[in-house]
Write a structure and sequence with these properties.
This protein is an all-alpha fold and about 240 residues long. Helices cover about 80% and strands about 0% of the residues. It has one domain (about 1-240).
Length: about 240
């Protein structure tokens, strides 16, 4: 665990030493704040003490931002050859992947924590469904973790950051949108399976304040799958080299 934390701290320091972390957080807060408080369908127009607008825009904003912060995680290491150097030390491929995963997820968590004042403000405006809001934040964190895992896997395949970014978006769009759209055209078991594969369906369930084991299994399966595939790709590259 110490080795994972060392890698996590190194990656976080890299984010905050550059403009990456600050730009991501500022743009995220700008977009979420505008649509939550100032857009046509803002909270005051709806007339309810809810953060549905915030969760809706964050669901899409994080989908694009996460590949941007994960694209360099392993691709840059592959390009510079430092991935081989890391692997020769007493650090396993799993430690490398999980450390980078934790760093990216912590950056997203910092961005989400910066929006807690939205929750505090809403709670002073009217009666709030605290369970729904907490579930929404929890859902955003799980969605983010799943997309971070996918992004790191995409980054482990290539040494080009732009390719990693586009590949993460391509893989993620199936879970983010396409499975949900396609499921409506099928009935029976096929439609049910496609609907289950949709991240939106599980996120909507959590944002209602309902913690269902099926939603947890879905997200943790995506997270674990991405991490295992990333570790496999790194191990394969090291073996070939």
């Amino acid at each position: 665990m110490d080795k994972i934390w060392i890698i996590t701290k190194r990656e976080l320091a890299t984010f905050f030493d550059s403009l990456t972390a600050y730009v991501m957080i500022v743009i995220f807060l700008g977009l979420s704040g505008f649509f939550t408080w100032l857009s046509v369908n803002n909270i005051f127009v709806i007339g309810q003490a809810r953060l549905d607008v915030f969760f809706g825009i964050s669901f899409w904003t994080l989908f694009f931002f996460i590949p941007a912060i994960t694209m360099r995680s392993i691709a840059e290491e592959n390009k510079t050859g430092t991935i081989e150097l890391l692997s020769t030390k007493a650090i396993s491929d799993w430690d490398i992947v999980v450390g980078k995963f934790m760093a990216c997820l912590l950056l997203v968590l910092v961005a989400l924590l910066c929006t807690v004042p939205y929750y505090i403000t809403i709670s002073r405006l009217g009666q709030v469904d605290h369970g729904g809001i907490i579930g929404g934040y929890f859902g955003l964190l799980l969605v983010s973790a799943a997309y971070v895992s996918i992004g790191i896997f995409a980054s482990s395949i290539t040494n080009n950051q732009i390719v990693a970014f586009l590949l993460a978006l391509f893989i993620g769009i199936f879970f983010h949108l396409l499975f949900d759209l396609i499921s409506s055209t099928f009935k029976g078991p096929v439609g049910a399976v496609l609907e289950f594969l949709s991240a939106r369906v599980h996120f909507d369930s959590l944002s209602r304040g309902v913690i269902d084991s099926r939603d947890l299994i879905y997200f943790f399966s995506l997270i674990l799958g991405g991490l295992v595939l990333s570790t496999t790709m790194i191990s394969r590259r090291n073996w070939q080299n």
